[in-house]
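Batch manifest, entry 17 of 40.
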Amino acid sequence: MMLDFVWFMLFSTIEGLAVYAFMLYIFRFKLSEYILPVMILIVLMNLQSFYLREDTQFFYLVPIINLLFSIMFMKCIVRMSIVGSIVSAGIGYAAFAVVQLLIAYCSAGYLSVEQVQDVPYKGYIMQLLSGVIGVTISHTLYKFGIGFSTDFERFRFKWESPLVFITCIVFCLTMGVVVYLGNLYIFLIFFIISILIFLYYALRKEQQDNDR
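Output type: structure tokens
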């Protein structure tokens, strides 16, 4: 069980790094400038994913939580508009999914969806390959100036901050119900830590902007 946890965390972190590399590099942000909050967030999301997938009937919430956290990351830490945050998160996950589909197709069935789901070590191979290839592709695109330079600031609305606040409240209440129904108090700890990290970096970024 412990070894399964270690492998899950390791390869899921590699996989998550590729997703965030796509999210940032494609929109002309340097991953290295956000590597600390990215790594912390990925680890916390992986911990939440592990407990939701392994111990409860709420596994279907994993992609929803991860996508919402990614949108909040782009909004609160990278400071994109809410529209830009949604677009960048969506493209990041979509680009990573394309990489995995291409790997599965080129493997001639060895890393098919069924094989990856049924054979653990093949799942790890898929995560490793897609993670390394994803980071390499996204960094190469950034290096050669390929990506989106769309100014999403023109899509910034006055009601964005209240919307983010209300979304966080609703999300927290929903997670509270999930924790209660599934007896997932350790999940609640990871979730609260994740929210606190968002608040910390958002407030710090706000202070830095005010000092300029």
